[in-house]
Amino acid sequence: MLKDLSIISTLVDAALEFARGRPKSGLLLLGAAAVSNRFPGIGTAASVLLRLYRRFFPNRGGHHVL
Q: What is the mean pLDDT of residues 6-26?
């Protein structure tokens, strides 16, 4: 049950990334959601790491890299 919720949450994060015009981040999170099915927690970790990356490097390269 909790595993399914984590996967759904990662898929929602991926959809939001695509909607915000960040296809690389969306693809990264889609991949993490797929891997989460086999290794629980990977999707949540990817989501958290992506948010931390954005917090500490907000304008890396002038435009969002991820």
A: 93
